[in-house]
Structures are given as structure tokens and as C-alpha cells.
Design goal:
single chain; 126 residues; Alpha-Beta Plaits
């Protein structure tokens, strides 16, 4: 690499890149919506500082198979990803990974509070 190419590369990397809280929130809501099987507008996200890292708190409903279908076929619970608890625990890790991957932000944790249930007929619940 020539000295000029190195100087151009260094100049292109100089400065700061910041991602707004609004952009991070949109990414977090989309990741949570995907993991919990709900529309992004149903997810509330808040950020807090956790010793220099970001802590993400989410409030969201979760999709469930119809209870009548579960009574007829208890295997629907496993087919939908498990219990609400199991799915929320799995979603936390998935959301942390996805938000970090998409934004580059360093998260310390993801907290989820399930606020309700959305019944979904048909195929697998995410």
C-alpha cells in the first residue's frame, strides 16, 4: 500500500460515528418483534446505562397458538417454540445477538416483560 493510499484510508476513518437512540430503538423493536412474533409497533423499548454498556428493557406481547388448539393437541406448545417462559428466555439471547450484530452497540443485557398474548392460528409461531 502506498503512503497516499494509507493517508486516504486513515482520513476516511477519522471522526465519530454515532447511532441515535431512535435508530437503536427501531432496531431493538424490530429484533424483538421478530423473536416474539408480534408487529414492531406493539413493542416498547427503553435504554439505560449499565456501567458503560447499554441495557435494553422491552415490554411486548407474545404470540400463542389458540388455547382450543393446544387442548386438542398439546404438542402445539412445543411446535410453537415452547412455553411463554422458554420463548422469552430464548428471545433475550436472540435479541441481544441481533441488535449487536445490526447496530454494533455493546449491550450488557436484555430484559423482557411480556405484557399480553396475541393468538395466532396456523403455522409455527416464531
Amino acid at each position: 500500500m502506498s503512503a497516499t493510499a494509507g493517508a486516504v484510508r486513515a482520513a476516511a476513518m477519522a471522526g465519530h460515528t454515532r447511532i441515535s437512540t431512535q435508530a437503536l430503538t427501531s432496531v431493538a423493536r424490530a429484533a424483538a418483534a421478530e423473536a416474539l412474533g408480534v408487529p414492531p409497533h406493539d413493542v416498547r423499548a427503553e435504554w439505560s446505562d449499565d456501567d458503560g454498556l447499554l441495557a435494553l428493557s422491552l415490554v411486548s406481547p407474545i404470540t400463542l397458538p389458540p388455547l382450543a388448539a393446544v387442548l386438542r393437541d398439546p404438542g402445539r406448545v412445543a411446535g410453537s417454540g415452547g412455553s411463554v417462559w422458554d420463548r422469552a428466555v430464548a428471545a433475550k439471547a436472540d435479541i441481544l445477538r441481533r441488535v449487536t450484530e445490526l447496530s454494533g452497540a455493546r449491550l450488557s443485557r436484555v430484559d423482557i416483560r411480556i405484557s399480553g398474548a396475541s393468538v395466532r392460528e396456523g403455522g409455527r409461531v416464531h
